[in-house]
Amino acid sequence: MTTNKNQSFFKRIIKSLTKANDLGKEAELLTDHDYDGIKELDNVLPPWWLYGFYITIAIGIFYTTKVVYFGAYKQADELNADITESNAQVEIYKNEHPELFKTDVVLLTDAESLTSGKKIFETTCLACHMIDGGGGIGPNLTDDHWILGGGIETIYHTISEGGRPGKGMIAWKATFNPEERQQVASYVISLQGTKPANPKASEGDIVWTKQ
Ligand code: HEC
Asked: In this predicted model, what pLDDT tens digit does every residue of 109-141 receive, in sequence order?
């Protein structure tokens, strides 16, 4: 009995949600629409669907009024908020890793720094630039012609990031810390105007001479 009761309760809910007509009433509900033998019953729209539809209309009006007329939400605001937040994160990262963002590289001229730079040059860079910077696989570093550009900041950048792809000059930022790169860049500049044993012919269209 209980099962039947439950069943009828369930059926009543379904009925109130669908307002479906009882079977057997087709004759009363039949409209005179007839399309190639397909006939139409005059059923009402099921309430579950109809109220869902009303709710979407209500939400649509509410949303349009709020967003379009009162400007409660603007994509541009969201974008600007995101940009501000990202910039703040970049600043935090920069502060946490100052060594990665050294932009104010200055030429070092003190003997100690140049000796450290020379040591790096004579153990690492000589393979391609020769011990006196005269050039081999890599260009001559003692003349005033540059492929990638002269000046402490540019040379520091070349040493850090490497030359053009496939040319053989790798990025040294993983090998040497910023101070060491600054020292070796300064040492490279100090080589300008010296007389290497076997100078390689000048390469590069950029002319830069140290002051
Ligand atoms: C494996 C060979 C190789 C090694 C090792 C090497 N270089 Fe180079 N270097 C090159 C080549 C090749 C170029 C030219 C890159 C280009 O044409 O883009 C170059 C270019 C350069 C330039 C730019 C020259 C210009 O005319 O603009 C500088 C400065 C330089 N190297 C410094 C160094 C320093 C400092 C080291 C050591 C830390 C070093 N190189 C180690 C091969 C090397």
From this structure: 999 999 999 999 999 999 999 999 999 999 999
- CA-closest candidate to residue 176, choices 159, 158, 192: 159
Residue 121 CA, closest ligand 1 atom number: 37
Q: Whose CA is nearest to atom 11 of ligand 1?
A: 138
Helix ranges (DSSP H) in the chain: 2-18, 26-29, 47-64, 75-96, 111-120, 126-129, 152-161, 178-190
- CATH of 111-207, picked from 1.10.443.10, 3.40.50.150, 1.10.760.10, 3.40.50.970, is 1.10.760.10
CA 97 / ligand 1 centre spacing (Å): 26
| CA–CA gap between residue 77 and residue 36 (Å, rounded) | 57
**Regarding beta strands 38-41 and 145-146, do their DSSP bridges make them parallel or antiparallel, or are they unpaired?**
unpaired
Name all residues whose Cβ lies below 6 A of ligand 1: 120-121, 124-125, 127-129, 137-139, 141, 146-149, 155, 158-159, 163-164, 167-169, 172, 184, 188, 204
pLDDT tens-place string over residues 74-105 = 888 999 999 999 999 999 998 888 766 666 78
Closest residue by Cα to atom 2, ligand 1, is 128
**pTM: predicted TM-score of the whole model, two decimal places:** 0.62
